[in-house]
Amino acid sequence: MTGARGVAADLGLGLLALVPSVVLYRGFFESAAYWPVAAVAGIVGTGCAVAAFGWRWSPLVKVLSAVAGYVVVVLPVVLLARGGEPWTWAGAAREVATGTARGWVTVLSVGLPAPVDHRVLVPLALVTFLAAYASAGLAIGSRSPVAPAGPPVLAYGIGLVVVATVPGTSLGLAAALAAVVLAQVLYRARPASEVSVRWGAVACAVVVVAVGSGFAVRATSVFGTGALRADPRPLDLRAAETPRVLTPLADVRPQTDLDPPRPVCAVTLAADAPGLPGVAIAVLDRFDGTIWTTGGEFRAAGQRLAGAPGGPASRRVNARITVARLRSPFVPVLGQPVRLDFPGARAAVGFDEASGSLYSPDIARGGAVYDVTAELLSADPPSRAVRPSENPDDEVYRRLPPGLPPVVRQLLHEVTDPEPTPTGKLAALNTFLRGLPYNRDARPGHSYADIARVIAARQTDDDGYAEQHAAAFAVMARALGYPARVVVGYRIPTTAGVHLVSTKDATAWAEVRFPDAGWVPYDPTDPTRTERRTPPRAVSNPTPADEPGPPDLASAANRPESPHQDQPPGAPWSVVVATGAGSAVLAAALVVLGAKSWRRHRRRRRGDDADRVIGAWAECLDLLTELRVPAARHRTPGEVASDAVTALGPRVAPLADLAEAATAAVFGPRHLGPDDVRLAWATERGLRRALYRGARLPLRPINRLNPRPLRKRWRY
C-alpha cells in the first residue's frame, strides 16, 4: 500500500473499527456526553501514531509521544471536573495518574447507569487512545493485513467485560466490527502479490469463522444477556464506604426521645403523593433472630438510578430535600428513586439497586440540597386475588432464622387462618398489630423474644412502638412464606408543599413484594392508640406434652425449586475471559498454519517449472528463518547456502545444489524441466527431515506455528 491516500484510507478504517467499542458503552453511561472524550482520544491517538511511526522515531520517543498525547486527552477532563476551583500542574498530574491507575476500580464498581465524570471517563479514554495508537502504528509500520485489526477487537472485548449486565444485545455491534475489520483487511491485502492474496483469503475465512463462533457463543449463553451475563462488579466491593451503622431500626426510639426534637430535613413535594408511607432512609432485608440489618451493596451513583422497576400502576413524584443533619449516613428518599439531581455541587452517593437506598456521609453532614424523582405505587391496595411474589430470586426476603417462638406461630394462625387469600391474611395481620397499644416508653428491641413479648405476653407488657410492630409484621409475613422487609424512615404528610421533618417523626413500616405492584407498604403502627386491648389476650405456651401445635410456617419459605434453578446463571467473567483468550490463541495458530500450507501449495503447484523451483528454494529459506539462520535478501543463493552450512553443519549440504537450481531458474529458466522440479522439492523435503531429527524433532510442530516466515517476501 503506497501513497498518502492509501495510508489515510487505512487509518480511517482503523478509526471506524473503534466506533463499535465506543457505542458499546451507550447503556453503561447515563447520557451520550462521553462521546466527545472517546472521539478526541481516538483522533489524538491516531495522530500521535502517525507522527511517531511515520517519522520513524526511536522507541523511547514513541512512548513519550504516546504519554503526551494521552495527557492532552485526559487533562481537560480532569480540569473540567474541578469546576472553578484553583488547580496546579502538580495536582492535575497527580489526578491524571490516580485516575489512570485506579480508575478501573471505579469502572468495575460504579452503579449503572454510570455518571459521565472523570472517574469513569479516564479509563475509557485510556482504552480508546491505546487502541487507536496501536492500530495506526501497526497500519503504518506493519505489512500484515490483519495486525491493525487487533487493537479495535481487543478494545471491544474489554468493553464487553465492562458493560457486563447492561441490558441489550451487542451482537449487532459485533457484526459491525467484523464488517469493518474485514474491509480493512481486504483493503490492506489489495496488492496483487503472492502473500497478500493469500492473506486476503485467510482473512475472509477467519472473519466468517469469528462471526459464526459469535453466534454459537451467543446461543450457548456463555456471555448471556441482561442480568444473566457475567458481571465483574460483585468482585469489587469498594464502590462506596460500607455502612457502619449497626441497624437504623434501633435508632427509632432514641430519635423520638429527643427533647426538643431536632430538625432532620425539609421535603418539598411537587404534587400530592397519596399512598406515600413516609420518607425512607434505610431498607433492612436481613434478620438473624436478634436484629434487622441491610445486605445491600452500595455502588457509586450518577444522575440516573437503575433500581427495581415499579409496577404498571406506579407513578412518578418529584421532591426537593434539604438536609439539616442526619444521625446516620443513610439518605432520605421517596419510594423507588430513579433520578438524583443536585442544584449545587454534587455529593458522592452510594446507591443500592435492590432496595433503592442511598448512602452518603457527605450529605449526612448537613447542608446538602438534592432533587429526587421516584416511582410510587398506586394508593389503592392490591386486589384480594393477587398473591405475593413467588419468584425464587426473592428467597432472601422469605428467609427466617431458626428459633421462631411457638407462641408467635400459634398467634399467627389465630389471626390469619380466617382469611382465605394472601392479601386478606396480610390485612388481618396489619389490623391486629395496629390494635396493639402504642407506647414510646416501651422496652426497645426487635428480636424474637421482643416480638413474642409484644404480641403474645401479659396485658401489662404488650405495649410497643414502631420498632417492634414493623419487625413483627415482617417476621410473621415471612413465616407465611411471603417476601417481606422492614423500612426505617420518617412520617410526612402526603399533600403537596413543604414539610419539615424532625426526629419526633421517626418511624418504621414493613413492605411485602407483589409480582406486578412491587413493594407494597404496610404500616402496622397506630400512634394514636394508647389504650390497652379489651378483652385481654392470653396465649398459652405449648409444651411437648400438649397436643401438637400448628406446623412450623417458616417452612413455607422453602419453595419448590424452580425448573430454571438448575440452569447456570452465566459463566463467571474469568471463564469468559479465559475462553476468549484461548479462542484468540487457537485462531492465531490456525491462521499461521493455514497460511503456510496455502503458500506451500501455491509454490509447488502454480507457475512454470522455474517458478516451482524458486518455490522450493523459498520454502528452504522459510525453514532457515524458523531456525533463526539469517538469509539476507541481498545475498545470492550460493552465499545463503554457504552460510547455512556454516551455521547448521554438513547435514544441509544438499542446499548448495538447490541454490544452483534456483540461480538457474532466475537467469536461465528455459533450461529447467519437470525433473528439476521434482529434484528441487525432494531436496526441500530431505532438508526438512534432516533438520528435525533427534532432539530437534519436537521443534517441528512448534516451528510450523512460527509466523516469522510469513513476513518474509523472497523475490528472485
From TrEMBL:
Where does the Transglutaminase-like domain start and stop, copy by copy?
458-526
- A Pfam family (short name) is TgpA_N
- Name the UniProt key words of this record, in alphabetical order: Membrane, Transmembrane, Transmembrane helix
Q: Where is this region: Disordered?
A: 519-575
InterPro entries, per the entry: Bact_TGase-like, Papain-like_cys_pep_sf, TgpA-like_C, TgpA_N, Transglutaminase-like
Q: Where are the transmembrane segments?
A: 6-25, 32-57, 63-81, 120-142, 154-187, 199-217, 573-595
Q: Which PANTHER family match?
A: PROTEIN-GLUTAMINE GAMMA-GLUTAMYLTRANSFERASE (PTHR42736:SF1)
Protein name per its UniProtKB record: Uncharacterized protein DUF4129
* Organism name: Actinokineospora auranticolor
